Amino acid sequence: MEKLLKIAAEAVDQAEVFYFDDTSDTVSFNDAKLDKANTSMSAGLALRVIKNGKMGLAHTRNLLDPKALLKQAIQSAENGTEVNFRLPLTKDVPEVTMYDAEIEKVNKNDLIAEGRRIIDYISAKTDGQIDLGFDYSIAHSGIMNSAGTSLSAKSSEFSIFAMMIFPGTGSGLFKFNLGKKFTQIDRAELDNLIELYILSKQQVVPDTAKMPVILAPTALHALLSRFFTAASPINMHNKVSPLCGRLGEQIVSDKFSLWQDPFDTEMISATSFDSEGTPTKKFAYIDKGIFTAFPTDLNYAEKLGIAPTGNGFRGSVEALPAAQAFNYSINAGSKSLKEMISGIEKGILAHSLMGAHSGNVLNGDYSVGVATGFYIENGVIKGRVKDCMISGNAYDTLSHIVDIENKLHNMGSSKLPSIMFDGVSVAGK
Amino acid sequence: MIETLKRLSNKIDADYFDIRYETKQVERVVMNKNEIRSCGSNTGDGFVLRVLKNGGFATVTFTKPEQAELAIKRAMENAAVLAANSDSPRKISPAPKVIATVKARLIEDPRQISLPEKVSLVKHYSNLLINQPQIANADVYYYDVFRNKFFYNSEGSEINEELVTLKLGAGVISQDGALTQTVRLAFGGSNGYQKVRNREAEALEIAKIAADLLKAEPIEAGTYNMILNPGIAGVFTHEAFGHFSEADIVRDLPAIGEKMQLGAKMGSDILNIIDDATMADQLGYYKYDDEGVAVRRVNLMTNGVLTGRLHDRFTAAEMNEPISGHAIAEDFKYGPIVRMGNIFIQPGTHSFEELLAAMEDGLYICEAMGGQTSGENFTFGANYGYVVKGGKIKGMIRDINILGNLYKTLSSVKMIGNDFVLDESGGCGKGQTNIRSCLGGPHVYFKDLTVGGR
User: Fold this and answer.
1) Whether A221 contacts A351, CB under 8 Å
2) Do B209 and B241 fall within a single domain?
């Protein structure tokens, strides 16, 4: 890799090498029966070059021929995008520990035994199908560039996924737990889920009306993805975002804040540098309802004439870095989920949604099916909702926050509470 | 390459194994508001090894040939853990041994067209779209993907199949003040570069729809009778029914499996649904799946009765049904899963005008904007639509998302059109992305579908 960077730096104006190597394993149960045990070993390398003010990218799985890869990158640059940014020289970033050597001790026989314990615990209290899975992985990645940056990171990840499916259906409730080493599923949260499951045996088709809706952390992405699409630096630069020119303005309720904290190592994406080698930082996207910042990568930060925020990430070696929010959290409120439910005369608690990616996302509009949700009447869950959709505009909905849960749930790359909104349009019978 | 696979796998002591190596060459041009965002050609490669021993079945993927020995070791360990702990040993259905080489059937080979020529084509469409009234932006992209697959299994099958897929797509954004509307465009297929040439008139039509949508009314929530155009009828077929014809989904959700028995009456008498990847020149064409099984046409629903299912060799053995050749992987990073190839409702006898007259009042909705299945429920979005009054098409509507239920919606098909269009877009995301997932059908009239809205 050093050799590749060296020959590239001689042939072009700026060069950058990004690489990763990871091994991941999975064990899963389907309908309480052991189902799969698989392994994936994957590696890759991307070379980005800037020559005569144009950017090119080439990538490979096996670095057999560095010269051929460089040739591909240069060809890509010849037809490529015009850019004016400089690759950064980044040194002495804070240490963010994302690896726990305990991960090396995880073995599939132990996980199968643990899986059976969890399944027995759930099945003693419920009657539906139980699916369960464990994933664990170790990853190395790094970035080097012609400005002299050389950064690398090692990380470990362990996750448990448990799902209870309502009898006779395919939908249900799920719990997801994450850590850097073998972690037990949170029994208190599992108990809450089992309680919800038991309460939701009846099926209810709600009326078509406006009513209060609580979105669980697993359903909030329907709103957040619309904000992040509008807050993408590409849409800001192209002036097609509804958030254009609105920095510093109130865009949602003052009860709502959205912060990014790259140094919170309880979330899986914690890092002190992004995949372009820019140092990351803690900042608010929305502070008490005011739109305060949007994520940027090097290229779009330069185009917009602002400092990069350290949000340039690659979805894979095939992709150019693009701005992406990570390790973000919403502020906790003051009420428990139970207190919020008890304050609702007629409303819905949505646990998971369908079709959240479709519709006019950029404009903030959403119209989604409730995959798993509960109908609340006089402060009590009456059953699970059937054939029901909720719709609105994300900014409008986020302006009608009644309460935010007093607890944040770790969703992996985010920590989110349940949020109760007023006057959400529900389509039912 | 097959010889290499034989050599790498000669030490495997299993009841069954297969090993697949493929190279995947992607050439891509991405433009964002008349500016090239990325462009270039890249090749990736890797191996997928699957072993079955004593009823334990495990998959290991790896990218470096020197990892082969370790991969075999891990696969055997995983299979042994499963065999020791599982109460339902896996079985594999018999399949014919195949020795074959299948070249891509191309009218105009995109691999023979230079990158600068592809760049100028993307620029051409981008310029065309962006200069239309009220169009604020057009993100135009092009890709072609060349998968060269080599498959070898312990039964002696040796297959090399090429798949070349290409697409020119765009998100066309219209704007009026703070209101924006997005309409998607996709031209492409599996039979060559001619698919993306000379499509200007259709591109202009998309730009006009995006501009018109700025004046369209958001739909009101409720239940409507509606006619789906072929694009969205195809997505309906895929989401509402197709996924439940995939044997792995049925297997993983036993409660749904109990209801999805072959012979069960699930739809209207007039409803026939077919998956046929063998049809020439459509996006989903292939000869052998990623288990080396020749794909065949499957009549999934006949006169409303469930008559077939899509299988891999393991689900077919478990359900004691015939293999169908539907085990498909995205690329070298994945083991195959059961996928639709080319699913559609068989055309009926009625003209579009007859459907409109029969419906009288309702909605005419067009082109899909994503769909999703969760359990027996599904949603799908429409790009745009129109109010229909007294059998006549009236004002345009937007923000249409439809919700349905597997057990109910298939019975609400009232009338089927006599036209037939297959989609050129692809991109089903069931864990892996299948860029060749093809769908389509005729115009179809449904009674009482639920729509979300204000």
Assistant:
1) no
2) no
